[in-house]
Amino acid sequence: MRPIAHRRHFRALGRAMLPLFFMAALAPSAQAAQWKWRDASGVVQYSDQPPPGTIPARDILQRPGANGSVAQAPSPQSASQPRAGDATQQQAASELDKKIAEKKKADQAAQEQAKLQQQQAQTLQNQQNCLQAQKQLLVVDSGQRMVQIDAQGQRAIMDDAQRAAERARIAGLMSQYCR
What we know:
Layout: H1 2-32, E1 35-38, E2 44-47, E3 60-64, E4 70-72, H2 76-79, H3 84-141, E5 147-149, E6 155-157, H4 160-177
Antiparallel strand pairs: 1-2, 1-3, 3-4, 5-6
Helix pairs in contact: 3-4
């Protein structure tokens, strides 16, 4: 019977420790999000929110870092000296700007290429339409009898006026496509 009692003891202990474990796990993230500043009366304030805009930058003693760590405010002596991290950040920003510029160039080149392909396709289509119009004009000018289908579905032979109208329509197509 001793092993069962022993297990109950550990279970109870585990249940008691569980909240402590979660509090310990959350403590670093709560601390990392802390702001610390000196207000106008000189009292040090702590918050998870940034200080009011009326607080000068020199009175902000601690700010949350970008990666969750706490960044201490620079001391007045070190504020005049450039930090090694600043140069690294500037270099990273410069590289990012270069990548953005390269991406813009590539996008612009792709747009120009697509526009060129569209123009080439339109030119090819115009050439095909021009050839078809030229063939139709040859048929109209050949003097052969031409037939049209009327509204009732009956075949009707074109007279000279209809042939002239058809020739004018084809000439319009040729002026549009044969440039």
